[in-house]
Predict the structure.
Amino acid sequence: MATPRILSGIKPTGKPHIGNYFGMMRPAIEWQDRGEAFYFIADYHALTTVRDPKSLREFSRGVALDFLACGLDPAKAVLFRQSDVPQVTELSWILSCVTPMPMLENCHAYKDHLANEKIPSHGLFAYPVLMAADILLYDSNVVPVGRDQKQHVEVTRDLAHKINALYGKILTVPEASILPETETIPGLDGRKMSKSYENTIELFPEEKALRKKIMSITTDSAAVEEPKEPATSSIVALYKLFASEADLRRMEDDFRAGGIGYGEFKKRLFEAVWAYFAPMRARREELARDPGEVDRVLKEGAQRAEAVAIITMQRIRHAIGLR
Ligand code: TYM
């Protein structure tokens, strides 16, 4: 492959958490040195759940700020708001015309909604098509995501193949990049970390709030003196992400030996998380001092993304007979 085009997105439905960070943000930041990276704030997608305009705007800026603080370099990667390049909704419509309904009926988010007896909106049903448009609009080769997005990238590949079979090879077929070690980060209750489960640890909470969250991690009722099982503990699973090999081994040995309570292990986890994000916290504070900076980055990102989108849409419109 020549220089790969890398693309990923994150929904501004709240503040980014460490599942987002390890599943997508950190890999995306690593990819920015290896190709042309396009990362966006999926505000159209967030409309399926966020109904308050002020919150949507604040969350969008907050996600951008966190991403920059974590090391996204606007000189290397294009950071933009999805809705600043509205061509994506046109492509979404075009794709929806070749999308079999059963393909969408099989997608998780829709099925979960039905299972919970909630009424899904058309936006939620069509969500994977808009996501396919995001990816295909930028001729993306690589899509760094967490495990939960794998199905959506597969839908994208299917749709690209369908369009290519109908109209000639006009779309690039992407591949998901999912890192096995960080594909599903557990939350405070051991289930997948997710805003909808309210089990998240945000990237930049106040010290006290972070401590409280970590102390609330669910454990079994083993007494202090009893040996404990590291392999099934969410404390260990999270500590693994932040600690050195030696510190991790020490925690695992201490679990098995007994004599130390979960509270002590949680304190170690807190220290590790707090130290890990310290440089990014400092960078975030610095960035937040100039509120115009995020806006400038997003504006320039939108221009660079739109320049690519215009060219792709010309090619697609021509191929399918709109022009
Ligand atoms: P979103 O906003 O739910 O999550 C953003 C990214 O974080 C990853 N992630 C996780 N990874 C590991 N463990 C977890 N517990 C965890 N929780 C979240 C997600 O897998 C994701 O990569 N549909 C997307 C946004 C999107 C998109 C796109 C992504 C819209 N268009 C095009 C890629 C390409 C979403 O809802 O992500």
The mean pLDDT is 97.
